[in-house]
């Protein structure tokens, strides 16, 4: 569906889909940790911000260009995540949430206050979209769309493979009981750290597309507001699945874009929608879809008798 | 250098301020089957957990496994050295299927004469038929079988079993007994904690009696079987 969408020729739709995809990567990064390990990380946008800022700084200061700038961005995001991962992977539950909240806010404060490097609230402007392999100028929204689509699909496939591999089984084991996994001879801190790095990697890729697409990098991208939106999108779609994360981001972003043109109070409306979903369908849109499909099969079985 | 596979010397264990195990010393030779007997609350399970460093227990003393002092090692490092544990209450995963339980524990042996998940399923068809269902959806006896199977496929050199007879039928118990005897032929040493005296004496060659955190008696299984007075004194039978 996503690959035929640009044939409608409507630039607006393309822009919306591109935004859904780069925010989608961020939500998937969150959802991966939440669904596989039961850990809610409010610092998922940190890797997103590090790669985005790195690219913005390297390119506006004419130090490096794409793809090297993006590569450095990912590597730097992973290096920082290495330390963050070690700091948080001994905690779980509410403590994990609070710790990631604090570390996320610390990253936000650095982005906001290290003005000589990040230009503070104004942010870094004038990041141009790159030429891809000297052939495709990504200034064109359609080419940009296809590029992010390919990367997006690759990320999803990689995560699916990972979740369904033996590593995925270990993740579920750790999610249920760390002590039982330790008893079996597993270094659970290492398993959690690897999962955290995977999440950061996906998040940092989202950051690359974000900064190239809008051409601006400012602290808003890694604010608490951004973290909470990611969490809401993930829960909205269904916390237990990657597809849910994508659907959740899709709905939230579309509602945001459509409503923000009509009223300034669009966040209120999103809040009410969120409340309704939480109250009526704790497993989000995917939970509703599951219930409908179950009902459907039962209905079909009954009628075929 | 001692010949024992597991040698516990002057082990003291504490839960917070309560001093549970007091100067416990135990020696287990390779391929031996040893049982710890004792009534409820005497510290039998604490002893098992102390060997592995599980569950917030503070420990003093020395524990040698294959001549290496493991008391300062992390639990997962101890487990990796070849100690498998069949805990009380089975401790299975509800999020993992029967098959996945064995898959994450499985450590293949070079030469290929160790336990494999397939062998476990062949010997225990009742769990072999239910590979895809969640581990905790099995019946009590089947869960115990899975917990033992999980320890077997690790192909350890030592298995610690905590109350394997708890809550299972005599039929299942007899087969577990068979497995226990078979372990010796496969080069696996067994260290068992048990309240069921009959089971312990039919499995073990040597028994230790634990009373209030102290080892008060040590005997061969045959001696202890004949020694009704000790049975009465220490176990209240």
Describe the structure.
The complex is a heterodimer of chains A (305) and B (237). Chain A is mainly α. Chain A has one domain. Chain A has 13 helices and two strands; from the N terminus they run H-H-H-H-H-E-E-H-H-H-H-H-H-H-H. Chain A has helices at 11-37, 44-60, 68-88, 93-113, 115-118, 141-163, 166-176, 178-183, 188-214, 224-237, 242-262, 266-280, 284-304; strands at residues 131-132, 136-137. Chain A has a two-stranded antiparallel ribbon with strand order 1-2. In chain A, strand 1 and strand 2 (136-137) form a beta hairpin. By secondary structure, chain B is of the alpha/beta class. Chain B has two domains: 6-82 and 156-235, P-loop containing nucleotide triphosphate hydrolases (Rossmann fold); 94-154, no CATH class. A six-stranded mixed sheet of chain B has the order 6-7-8-3-9-10, sandwiched between helices. A four-stranded antiparallel sheet of chain B has the order 2-1-4-5, covered by helices on one side. In chain B, helix 3 (98-105) runs parallel beside helix 6. Classes of the chains: A mainly alpha (305), B alpha/beta (237).
Features:
heterodimer, A: 305 residues, mainly alpha, 13 helices, 2 strands, 75% helix, 1% strand, globular, B: 237 residues, alpha/beta, Rossmann fold, 2 domains, 6-stranded mixed beta sheet, 4-stranded antiparallel beta sheet, 10 helices, 10 strands, 27% strand
Q: Which series of helices and strands of chain A comes N to C?
A: HHHHHEEHHHHHHHH
Second CATH tier, the architecture of the largest domain in chain B: 3-Layer(aba) Sandwich
User: What characteristic shape of chain A results from the CA principal axes?
Assistant: globular
The helix tally of chain B amounts to: 10
Number of individual domains of chain B: 2
> What spatial form of chain B do the alpha-carbon principal axes imply?
globular
Largest sheet descriptor of chain B: 6 strands, mixed
Helix fraction of chain B by DSSP (H/I, runs of at least 4): 25-40%
Backbone CA Rg of chain B: 17 Å
Helix-strand sequence of chain B:
EEEHEEHEHHHHEHEHEEHH
* Poorly predicted runs of 5 or more residues of chain A: none
Distance between the termini of chain B: 39 Å
Which topology of the largest domain in chain B does CATH recognise? Rossmann fold
Please estimate the helix content of chain A.
Answer: over 70%
Secondary structure tally: strands of chain A:
2
Strand portion of chain B: 25-35%
The most extensive contact between chains is: A-B, 18 and 21 residues
Strand order of the largest sheet of chain B: 6-7-8-3-9-10
Q: What is the CATH class name of the largest domain in chain B?
A: Alpha Beta
Number of strands of chain B: 10
